[in-house]
Write a structure and sequence with these properties.
heterodimer, A: 336 residues, B: 288 residues, two-stranded antiparallel sheet, 73% helix, 3% strand
Chain lengths: 336, 288
Amino acid sequence: MSAPVVTRATRASRVAMIVAALAVIVLALAPWWAGRADLRLMGEIFLYLSLACLWNLMAGYAGLVSVGQQAFVGFGGYMLFALTIFGGLHPIVAILGSGVLAAMLSVPVAALIFRLKGAYFAIGTWVMAEVFRLTFAQISALGGGSGTSLPVDVVRSLADSRSGREAFSYWLALGAAITVIACVYLFLRSRRGLALTAIRDSEVAASGLGIDIWRTKLEVYVVTSAFTAIIGGLLFLQKLRISPDAAFSVNDWTAFVIFIVVIGGIGTLEGPIIGTLIFFLLRETLADFGTIYLMVLGAVAIVVMLKAPKGVWGLVRDRYDLELFPLSYRVRTKKE
Amino acid sequence: MIEWLNAIVQGVLLGGLYALFAAGLSLIFGVMRLVNIAHGDLIILAAYLGLSTTVMLGVHPFVALLVVMPAMAGIGYVLQRGLLNQTLGTDILPPLLVTFGLSVILQNALLEGYTADPQKLSAGSIETASLSVGGLSLGVLPLLTFAMAVAVIAGLQWIFYATALGRQFRAVSDNQDIAQLMGLNKAHVFGLAMALALAVTAIAGIMLGVRTSFDPSIGGGRLIFGFEAVIIGGLGNIWGTLAGGVILGVAQTIGAKIDPGWQVLAGHIAFLVVLAIRPNGLFPRVEH
């Protein structure tokens, strides 16, 4: 007679972890094997991957569907510029500082927009992002509506040589993506993550079990806002130039991120990774078509939402019962 | 003093335009609990359809409404039955993301078809005509827009509460399943609601195009103004939406009076203040 055991890890997830670890090592060595353009593209991919994971945590797990995350991307970018130019801080310190400031700012923001439900919450976040954009456009010290560039000495403080800077900002992007994925994974495996999953499945049942729904959502909102601002700082550290329209662009920082998560598979950890790869594959092959490319992207997202709401990863998981990041529990009968 | 009074009066009239943006949004939320993120882009689509009609037929923009309103209503019915009906359910994610995707598609399709150059509908002498009332100079066009908004909202109110179609709208809004049992085809009723909403959107788009220049990228901003008017006025109250539009318009013109760069920001701040003090809006519908 065999006793049933409860496990989380599977053979697939163990293999995936080993492959992921090897991939991280190979990617960390990229400055020695990749060209400059590739390095830049990969840096951008990692930052988009981070944004996608964060948006997925909010929308896919906490039910907070925001179309205003550009508020915090832009805020982080502007704080990088403000804290280095006026505060004289090192860029890395400034970026981490922008995360702390964003967390503090997100509490009163949440107090207001959490009053809106569902789809109205979504548009409320967009209003907030517009308030941020218009406010920063009024600050003449940061270039007002036309924006400003990062001074040369701030850029130099990262590394002396150009290749050194490029490698450094690449590692920052890689590090950010790994940190975000690891944090989201560990959070979802924790007790609070379980509470969050319960809320996603049924708010009524979750609150019946004693979960403070408002508070759990607030925690997720604050943490995602802080991380989003940090990613925003890193994005504009790559660009070296900021303007209100670029910093608070709904297309760049929210539409693309939403498409990535929806196409990859919302509410799964693997989804944003697959989605990011598909998104950049499409972008690199179709970018010459400009507006047509965006229309195709929008159409693909609509079709996926209607025909396969769990995205590409959802299809794979249903077909092969795969889970690369072991979040669920499995009961198995142990073979003697 | 008279300058401030003037700003307030202009704001009230501007509020008429925002109420037109909001009326369609309010209608479809009321009937099928759908929040259409593409609403602003549909307003811009109507403005461009108006442009094409005036150019091709050589008619006045207001005459073009005779073409644009049925065209938008048709688009609305097809869109609802062909696409949006499939997204309705208890999950809020599909309608939100599908209309978001639609917004991106519309925006880029307009960009492809009409380029990014700003366009304007030319309405002739009415654009600059004004009436002088007690020291205030009131533009005929803003007055006409406001009158149109009042007429549209009164018309919607009448349709909702005095016609068979309105009874069907209220029935599916109250309980879809029982409405089905009573012999209504909810897919068809929803299609009609969207057709009506987009006919109103056609008016909003033409009035916008006559008043200011427009380009494919400004839809999001119009959605936000309409949304703010709905929330300020209170969900489900269509006259409240007019009041919300007026409050938003006045906040914007007063903001612009203080500093031209503050116009839009002042409107957003007014919205956030209302949200902080009265989360259900100023005139929420009494739940029965």
